[in-house]
Amino acid sequence: MKVIEVTNLHKRYGTHVAVDDVSFSVAEGEIFGILGPNGAGKTTTVECLSGLREPDRGTIKIAGADDRDSLKRIMGVQLQSAELPEKLKVWEALDLYASFYGRTSGDLLERVGLTEKRDTYFGKLSGGQKQRLSIALALVGGPRIAVLDELTTGLDPQARRDTWELIEQVRNDGVTIVLVTHFMEEAERLCDRLALIDAGRVVATDTPSGLVAMVDDEQRLRFRPSGPFSEEILRALPEVTEVSRSGEQVVVTGTGNLPHAVTLALAAEGVIPTDLRIEQATLDDAFLALTGRKLA
Ligand SMILES: Nc1ncnc2c1ncn2[C@@H]1O[C@H](COP(=O)(O)OP(=O)(O)OP(=O)(O)O)[C@@H](O)[C@H]1O
Q1: How far apart, in whole angstroms, are the C-alpha atoms of residue 229 and residue 12?
Q2: Burial code of 115-141, b = ≥16 C-beta within 10 A, e = fewer?
Q3: Any atom of ligand 1 within 6 Å of the Cβ of 37
């Protein structure tokens, strides 16, 4: 079932078109990503989605939300770099937000792993803890949909991974998630489907693997052979398009079930591919092919 349907969304700031004819839909229970470089129009899109900005044109349908009040109940929003007063304690922030919805914060602190920080000032939290709190604040109204904007920007790799796990837990609890990001790795790891957006336009919408396959299903294998062999045995395989050497390493490019075909052919010669690495095209490659630009 579709819970969000955006059709031909358009938003200008003065003469600058920030969002140009954007359409996508989000199914219940999905983590739907909006991935694109800085300035692509991602934040403007989700601000329109959450009723914080009025679009110039286009329609936005949120299942069950016919007015602003019902939208507020259905959708929880965490906006980019939302700051709280330094001297607000974690529990005070949660209670304050809960009061907006006439609710209590329940076990949210525990769910986001901040129980021990309940009496800590916002200003004393680490980047990752601030982000955990902002997820808790987006969830405090018990929403069916959570919109999370650039959640892991500025976090170290461990804090980023912890936040990803938390987002997955939230989804497992039945919340549909719209995730704005400019990190390819984050989109690949978390999103069921995503819209690639560039200069205000959606350039493609699909699963991460579908987007990559759209561009290129070529893979590259790198390995060190355990002994000498003739490269011709690999060139003869229908899966292989190219074989080259880089020092001691053999690099094989091809399609289909390339790892299986190559290891089998080598095994027949008594050769083991050691330090075997498989490199596949990434979302970055897909973005580059679709827009002529790199994501990062
Ligand atoms: N309030 C505003 N007034 C004027 N221009 C704006 C405003 N907000 C955004 N813009 C411009 O609109 C374009 C889209 O901005 P938006 O913040 O939606 O992009 P984004 O993809 O979220 O980028 P980022 O990842 O950098 O936040 C940018 O060129 C930005 O400079």
Answers
A1: 62
A2: eebeeebbeebeebbbbbbbbbbbbbb
A3: no
- Alpha carbon nearest to ligand 1 atom 14, residue: 41
d(CA 240, CA 253): 6
Q: Name the one residue in this structure whose structure tokens are 């001691």.
A: 248
Judge if pTM exceeds 0.80.
Answer: yes
19 CA → ligand 1 middle, Å: 9
Asked whether 163 and 190 are in contact (CB, 8 A), the reply is no
For residue 81, pLDDT over 80 is answered with no
* Residue 69 vs residues 11, 49, 64, 134: alpha-carbon distances, Å: 23, 14, 11, 21
Residue 181 Cβ < 6 Å to ligand 1: no
| Strand pairing report for 201-206 and 193-198 | antiparallel
At residue 82, the pLDDT reads 66
Q: What are 203's strand-pairing partners? A: none
The closest of 95, 205, 197, 86 to 140, measured between CA atoms, is: 95
Q: Is the ipTM of this complex over 0.90?
A: yes
Tokens of 280: 């596949």
Question: What are the structural domains, with CATH classification, of the chain?
Answer: 2-213 (3.40.50.300), 217-280 (3.30.70.100)
